[in-house]
Amino acid sequence: MSLRCSIYDGSITRACIASESGYNSRMTSPSSSSPTEVLFYHLEQQTLEKVLPSLVEKTLERGWRAVIQSGSQERLAVIDQALWTYKDDSFLAHGSAKDGFAAEQPVYLTTTGETPNGAGVRFLVDGAEAEAFTGFIRIVYLFDGNDTDAVKTARSQWTAAKGAGCPVTYWQQSASGKWERKA
Q1: Fewer CB under 10 Å: which end of the chain, C or N?
Q2: How far apart (Å, rounded) are the C-alpha atoms in residues 179 and 162?
Q3: Model-level pTM?
Q4: Diameter of the chain by CA atoms?
C-alpha cells in the first residue's frame, strides 16, 4: 500500500490518501442485506490507547474506513495523540471536523453519530452508544472492565444489538494479552 500525504506549512496534513491494496476514497460498502456485526472488547489488561490503534490498523488493512466515536472531547484528544504516536516507526492517518477534509479521512474522530468518510466500521468508546445498528459492516465497542458504569452500558448495548438481530461477539483479553472469544 502506498500512502500519499501533503505537506502544508511544514506539517503533514491529516488528509492522507492511500492507494493500491489499501483503503481509498471508495471503501467497501456494507451490504444492505447483511446485518451489522457487533463486537464487544472487554479491556482489563491494557488501556484503550494501547488496544484501539491495533484494531484500527486491522480495519484499514481490510480496506475499510473507520469512525471513532467517543463520549467526550477530552478522551478524543487522547485518542488523537495515541493514533499519531502508537508506534515509533509509523502512525495512523486520521482527522476530525477541525482538521477538514472529512470525506477523505481514512479514520474520522467524533463525539457525534456523524460518518462523513463513509466508514464501514464504527468504534464506540468512553460511553458512546450506537444510534442504530445499521449502515456499517461492524460496530465495535471497547469498554473498561474495571468501570462498573462502562460494563453496565456494554450490557445494555449487547441486549440492544441482539434485539436488532445483529450477530454479536464478546472478546476478553487473557492475562498473557491474547484476545479470547467468550461469547
Answers
A1: C
A2: 22
A3: 0.83
A4: 50
